[in-house]
Amino acid sequence: VGVELNQEVKDVIDQLMADSQFAVYSLAAAGDLIRNMYHQSEHLRIIREEGPRIMLLSGGGNDFFEMFPNMLQANPQNDDPSTWIKTNCHVELEVLKKYYVALLTELHTAHPTLDIILHGYDYIIPRPNGPYIGNFMIDKGYMEKAKQKVLIRYIMELFNDALAELATIHAFAGKEHYLRMIGTLEKDNQG
User: What global pTM score does this model have?
Assistant: First the structure.
């Protein structure tokens, strides 16, 4: 999603696969969407065949950020990032949560003993000419790097809060776990 990388970033599943103490079966596909995961349901067959105790469900970033250009108010005139986004940002988060709830309900119904781990994302760093985030921010009048950082922090907090809320749903209590990943990247992009 237009993340500035000075070195290869390994995601959570890459880290687990590199550790020989874990037996990992990955269905990960770069750019996949939670709504596709739900509709395709490939995971149900694999879980039935492999019988894992834990599933790492990683997603939502692409679903959310494909709508990013339409979420921003043009030419922000104040310092309150909550006013810089349109209502559809919150609508997209609700849609994302509904897909997650449907997917988690399906998983818990078919495999009630399966523990599911969800993880959020760290703050991303928009590239000045990044085709997914950087250009759109500039086009909407977010020219200053400091304002871009504030906006990204605000949006990533909203996104992470939405995922964390899923772990509090009573129907999933004790079988779903959320990992907050803010502050885990090596590059200091927080200030």
Answer: 0.83
DSSP 85-138: B-HHHHHHHHHHHHHHHHHHHHHHHH-TT-EEEEE--PPP-B-TT-TTTHHHHH
Element (H, E) at 55: strand 54-57
Q: What is the pLDDT along the chain (191 residues), one digit of tens a residue?
A: 333 344 455 677 777 888 888 788 888 777 788 889 899 888 999 999 999 999 988 888 888 888 888 899 998 889 999 999 999 999 999 999 999 999 999 999 999 999 999 988 888 887 777 777 888 888 898 888 889 999 999 999 999 999 999 888 878 878 889 989 888 876 544 44
Instruction: Report the alpha-carbon distance of residue 153 to residue 159 in Å, rounded.
Output: 10
In the chain, which residue ranges form alpha helices assigned H by DSSP? 12-18, 34-40, 42-50, 61-65, 87-110, 134-139, 145-166
Residues with Cβ < 8 Å from 176, sequence gap 6 or more? 104, 108, 115, 116, 117, 118, 166, 167, 169
Measured between alpha carbons, how far is 125 from 2 in angstroms, rounded to an integer?
A: 8
d(CA 26, CA 59): 13
How far apart CA 121 and CA 98 sit, in angstroms, is 19
